[in-house]
Amino acid sequence: MPEWLNALPKAELHLHLEGSLEPELLFALAERNQIALPWADVETLRSAYAFNNLQEFLDLYYAGANVLRTEQDFYDLTWAYLQRCKAQNVIHVEPFFDPQTHTDRGIPFEVVLRGIQQALVDGEKQLGISHGLILSFLRHLPEEEAFKTLEQAMPFRDAFIGVGLDSSEKGFPPRLFERVFAKARSEGLHAVAHAGEEGPPEYIWEALDLLKIKRIDHGVRAIEDERLMQRIIDEQIPLTVCPLSNIKLCVFEHMGQHNILEMLERGVKVTVNSDDPAYFGGYVGENFATLHEHLGMTEVQAKRLAQNSLDARLA
Ligand SMILES: Nc1ncnc2[nH]cnc12
Ligand SMILES: [Zn+2]
């Protein structure tokens, strides 16, 4: 990665902590927790990281998360991510975590939260990286389950800045979560949601109008709807775009087709993020680097993208 790209101060606003679980740490945690794995070794697991769509990735991502059991595991996961951030001049993070992925396996909510939170606090003190944590609901599960998760989270209200919506997009439109998002907002939480990754522009409209989100996660399919594009530009609603993820999950066939710079030039407040870096081939720095390499991103454009990420912070 060019040093000038690495040196740019940036924020990461779209990162799933569970998606930062590198195969090496996954195997180490499996050994520590005495869990048998279906993969022979790190290389075999890494070679399984070939996906035709979002669902194929999610199946492996949820399987991988099974090694996370103790508060120390969640601490180690988060700490490893923060060290990557430090090395790439990421000065602020607003990561997601998916409580239901863990509570549905019998891991208490507070075990997950305390491990993550302690690492974030240490990251602020020892690495100088500020943070705002986002609790994300799994949209393939019923809204009732999201309500239960929000209830579990409320005793720890101060540990979060907002709620998000992730997992399988197609067939699970934002409107299904209108009531739980209203409840979260009434508690003073910010709202964000994955929309327009695989799903149609209508899902982005719903996320804006019904969930009243402050930022759109992905949102690359907004370009198919001119009226939506105008709104996003007029209202300067940030998009947290994840280039390497979009290629790995076949949202675009190859990086040369990615629309992030076209959006930037049209005045959309786009940002660069890694989504699930352990699975998609790189952290935020590598995502910037691929735009430089394959789309000819200039230094001026890179600076605007980095500044957008700092401007689009919610914490
Ligand atoms: N890219 C993505 N889209 C939806 N849900 C996710 N969970 C983790 N990564 C995701
Ligand atoms: Zn995501």
Automatic annotation (TrEMBL):
Its EC number is 3.5.4.2. Binds 1 zinc ion per subunit. Keywords: Hydrolase, Metal-binding, Nucleotide metabolism, Zinc. Residues 9-311 form the Adenosine deaminase domain. GO terms for biological process: adenine catabolic process; hypoxanthine salvage; nucleotide metabolic process. Pfam families: A_deaminase (PF00962). Its cofactor is Zn(2+). Substrate binds at residue 276. The record marks 218 as: Important for catalytic activity. SUPFAM superfamilies: Metallo-dependent hydrolases. GO terms for cellular component: cytosol. It is an enzyme of class 3 (hydrolase). Zn(2+) binds at residues 14, 16, 194, 275. Catalyzes the hydrolytic deamination of adenine to hypoxanthine. Plays an important role in the purine salvage pathway and in nitrogen catabolism. Belongs to the metallo-dependent hydrolases superfamily. Adenosine and AMP deaminases family. Adenine deaminase type 2 subfamily. PANTHER family: ADENINE DEAMINASE. This is Adenine deaminase. It comes from Pseudomonas berkeleyensis.
